[in-house]
Design goal:
- With 263 residues, the protein is an alpha/beta fold.
- 25% of the residues lie in helices and 34% in strands.
- It binds S-adenosylmethionine.
- S-adenosylmethionine (SAM) binds next to strand 2.
Length: 263
């Protein structure tokens, strides 16, 4: 019940999270480009860093990072993975809507569509004012969020096949299905993810269900939120190859610059 309210059921098994998400590396080279371009002197902040999927590879290139997440289990796994690597990372357990790190950076990012965890307008403002507070004037904030296309929002309320995952250690297969219900008033999509674990003969041997709520933000709405929180939009891409956004995009990647202090 606790993790349903905390919207963290997807993160209660950090090992499974990594098995499913570590192969995703599309954002890393773009982040590295900004890391080398910015005057960070190595200090970069990764907000909602999870198990350090992006934090650890950046630190491996010699940058000094702070990885912040609210979920102790995800952070413990991040610490475990990085413990023998001799990297400069501070792992901090905090709520990003009320961030208090006592440092300033020229580069802050939040990837893996974590922005969608900030479900209410107040939570989004909390996150963005926290970013403003920790960013130097002229500093850059990069984040991604799924594109609210009609196709994305109006997914079937019935169980739909999504993908097959293959466990890289055991080669066991997992069929993944989703049920999606979109609430147009709150702009929140409720996803139930159903994982059907198969044995070597393809027979289902276990089934797990997890729930997650994700907020969607429309591009014109995002413009206003960012402006209100002291940011100028430098670029909006639909992918990490810097392709300009179009109507058929799946994602929105925002590159913003802090233009003023808001508090
Ligand atoms: C989809 S994961 C992304 C993790 C990582 N950035 C990545 O790309 O793999 C979302 C993360 O956001 C974290 N999160 C959600 N709400 C948060 C909050 N208010 N403050 C800090 N972290 C939060 C979750 O605990 C989870 O680790």
């Amino acid at each position: 019940m606790e993790s349903i309210n905390a919207n963290s059921e997807e993160y209660d098994d950090p090992i499974l999270y990594d098995k499913e998400n570590e192969p995703y590396i599309e954002d890393l080279s773009y982040l590295l480009k900004w890391a080398s371009a910015s005057k960070t002197e190595g200090l970069i902040i990764d907000l909602a860093c999870g198990t350090g999927r992006a934090t650890i590879p950046l630190a491996s290139k010699g940058y000094k990072l702070i990885g912040v997440d609210i979920h102790k289990g995800m952070l413990d796994e991040a610490k475990r993975k990085s413990s023998n690597l001799n990297l400069q990372i501070d792992w901090v357990e905090q709520d990003c809507t009320r961030l208090n790190l006592n440092v300033k950076s020229n580069l802050i990012f939040s990837v893996g569509n974590s922005f969608q965890h900030f479900l209410t307008n107040e939570a989004q403002d909390g996150l963005l004012s926290s970013v403003n507070k920790h960013l130097e004037l002229g500093g850059v904030f990069i984040f991604d969020t799924r594109f609210p296309s009609t196709e994305e929002l109006l997914q079937p309320v019935t169980e739909e096949y999504w993908k097959k995952n293959v466990d890289k250690d055991t080669q066991n297969k997992v069929d993944v299905y989703t049920i999606s219900t979109y609430d147009s008033l709150s702009q929140i999509q409720h996803y139930t993810t159903i994982r059907k674990f198969l044995n070597k003969e393809g027979k289902i041997i276990d089934e797990q269900r997890t729930n997650i709520r994700l907020r969607y933000v429309f591009p014109k709405e995002m413009e206003r939120i960012l402006l209100d929180n002291g940011f100028e939009i430098v670029n909006i891409f639909k992918d990490w190859n810097e392709t300009p956004i179009t109507n058929d995009s799946y994602g929105m990647i925002y590159v913003c610059k802090k233009t003023r202090n808001i508090k």
